[in-house]
Each structure stands twice: as structure tokens, then as C-alpha cells.
Design goal:
alpha+beta, SH3 type barrels, Thrombin, subunit H, seven-stranded antiparallel beta sheet, 7 helices, 38% strand, disordered C terminus
């Protein structure tokens, strides 16, 4: 701890001239100032100019991002303009009670008031879509008005010919519209998440969802899902949160009694505030009321670090490609 404290003091002195930077306030009253490169569940990597520090989260009391310190720069309009230019923020229209994550998606800063499911479905219906490939179909939802949407990796696995069906509200009715220019932006096979983008020239600004917090949910709270089970688009199912710590293959999932079936995969799981708290992705086949969803925190982590999971048509296997280890039996045979 003594070495970390001494290093933090050196970092503060070395970076005192930086106009705008991220700050990690440590529990021992020291601080580290630099540019946050990545945030993991157990650590944060910070570029301090001459090296990169990996700080355990257990040592961090508070993290202040550069966009949060922007409001503190009031000495002159010139400095404020320079700070904004350096930070290069993406403008986004943010409503009260919401925060914009780099202008890419919105997340609630406080719980939204509960409403009835009927009203929420009418409000959120256009944001939920059906994702189709030659091999099958699933669900998805827009996260901003630029056509970016989330679905499951297994919905589009091995496919590049993807279409998205959107249901636009016209005169109180929903009109089906299909878009076929869909680009794969990022993939995370191990979290079963995919980020897509509708690029049709005639596509209007999309209605989108707001992320809530799965951590803030209590077991027994009511939730509902919208999706296309067995291809039956715009199907709404309601239930409760059975548990939020169901472990499967090393990952934690939300378990819900809301009915989930093939075709629901990739669709949103909402709380009664109309916020996405999870992405439905599987169920136990020989059981009822045993559906599962990826927590919203995992989805947001994927979106915040989407560059690390970027998809390239020139190298479809990136960013991960695991090869089978060599057979020990064959290795011994070669040695003999």
C-alpha cells in the first residue's frame, strides 16, 4: 500500500498540467489521475502518460470521469471550449433522471416510477424488433436513434445475411417494415451478445430503450418480456424475478417466471419502470416458468468496451479465436 500511495503522489504531480483527465480516488486518501483505458469487474487500467497502472477495485473509493469534471471548468469560455474539444464528446439529448453514455445509449440514474404493462408496451413497442437470418430468427431492441441494436450472439452465429423487422406505429396500429442492410458491429460469444446496426438509407430515426439496473431489482419484483417466440412477433409475457444470481457455466443470470421460448432470444426484459434490466437468452426446455436473461450490467459492459469486441468482415473470427490444444497422446507418439 505504501508503494501505491507514493506512486499516486508522483502521478498527481506529473499530470498536474493535464486540463482534463479521469481521476481514481483511493481509499487511503490518495488519487491517481490519467486516462482510463478499461474497467473490469475487479480492476481498472489507467494510462498515466509514461506507464499503465492496473488498480484493484477494492482500493478505489470513487471514479471521476473527464466528462464529469467538465462542468467544473468555468474560468473562461475559451478553456471550456478547449476542454470539450479535448474530450471530444458525442452530443446526445438527455432527459432528467437519465445519463448518456458517450451519446451511445442511455441509462437511468434513479428508478423510474412504476406503470402498468399495457401503457409500457405501447410506449416501447417500436424499440423491440425481430432479427431474421437464413438459419432462424430471434428478437432484439434499439439502444439509440441511430439504428444500433442488441441481440444474442447465438441468434446470428455463423450468419452475415441479417434482416431486421421493425413495427412502426401508424394511426394506433403497428406497421411492419423490413430492413436488410444490417451490419455486425461487435460480438461477444462468451456473453452471448451481439451489436448490430441498421444501415438502410430509408430507415427513420429509431425509437430506443433506456437501461435500468439489474442489481437494483429485488427478488419477487414483476418484470415483462417483449419478443417473437416461435416467430409470433410482439408477444408480451409477464412474470416475477425468481433470482438474480443463478449461476450457469460460470456466469450469473437473472431467472424469471416470464415465459421465454425460442424466438425470444435477444429481446429485452423490462422492469415496471420500462427500463431494460436484462436480455433474454435461454430457458430450461423441460420446465415452465424457468427463463433466463443476461443482466443489464453485463450488456452495458459490452457496449462500453465494444471496440474490444469489434467485428471485421475481413477477419470474422476476431476478436477471439481459440484453437484446440494438441493431443497429449499424439504428442507422446511423436516423441517416441
Amino acid at each position: 500500500m505504501l508503494r501505491l500511495r507514493h506512486l499516486a503522489w508522483v502521478v498527481l504531480v506529473a499530470s498536474a498540467h493535464v486540463a482534463l483527465a479521469d481521476t481514481l480516488q483511493l481509499k487511503d486518501q490518495a488519487a491517481i489521475t490519467g486516462r482510463i483505458l478499461s474497467e473490469k469487474r475487479d480492476s481498472v487500467a489507467v494510462d498515466v502518460g509514461y506507464t499503465v497502472l492496473v488498480v484493484p477495485r477494492s482500493s478505489i473509493a470513487k471514479i471521476s470521469k473527464d466528462d464529469e469534471t467538465e462542468t467544473a471548468i468555468k474560468s473562461s469560455p475559451a478553456k471550456k471550449t478547449a476542454a470539450k474539444t479535448a474530450a471530444n464528446p458525442v452530443p446526445a439529448e438527455t432527459k432528467p433522471g437519465l445519463e448518456s453514455k458517450s451519446g451511445f445509449y442511455q441509462a437511468a440514474t434513479k428508478p423510474a416510477p412504476e406503470r402498468n404493462v399495457r401503457d409500457l408496451v405501447n410506449q416501447l413497442g417500436e424499440a423491440v424488433v425481430q432479427v431474421r437470418t437464413p438459419g432462424g430468427l430471434g428478437s432484439g431492441f434499439f439502444i439509440n436513434d441511430e439504428g444500433f441494436l442488441i441481440t444474442n450472439f447465438h441468434v446470428i452465429e455463423g450468419e452475415t445475411q441479417i434482416s431486421v423487422e421493425v413495427y412502426l406505429q401508424r394511426g394506433g396500429q403497428f406497421e411492419r417494415k423490413t430492413y436488410k442492410q444490417v451490419r455486425i458491429v461487435a460480438l461477444n460469444k462468451f456473453a452471448d451478445l451481439a451489436l448490430l446496426k441498421v444501415e438502410d438509407k430509408d430507415a427513420p430515426k429509431s425509437k430506443y430503450v433506456v437501461f435500468g439496473s439489474a442489481d437494483a431489482l429485488a427478488v419477487g419484483e414483476r418484470v415483462f418480456a417483449i419478443g417473437s417466440p416461435l416467430g409470433l412477433e410482439r408477444t408480451v409475457t409477464e412474470g416475477i424475478l425468481s433470482t438474480k444470481t443463478r449461476q450457469m457455466q460460470g456466469d450469473l443470470y437473472l431467472q424469471t417466471t416470464a415465459q421465454i421460448n425460442p424466438g425470444n432470444s435477444g429481446g429485452p426484459l423490462f422492469n415496471l419502470g420500462g427500463e431494460v434490466v436484462g436480455v433474454t437468452n435461454m430457458k430450461i426446455t423441460f420446465g415452465e416458468g424457468l427463463g433466463f436473461a443476461i443482466p443489464a450490467e453485463t450488456v452495458r459492459y459490452f457496449l462500453d468496451h465494444r471496440d474490444a469486441f469489434a467485428y471485421s468482415s475481413d477477419n470474422p473470427s476476431n476478436p477471439y479465436r481459440y484453437l484446440e490444444p494438441p493431443s497429449r497422446t499424439k504428442h507422446q507418439a511423436l516423441e517416441e
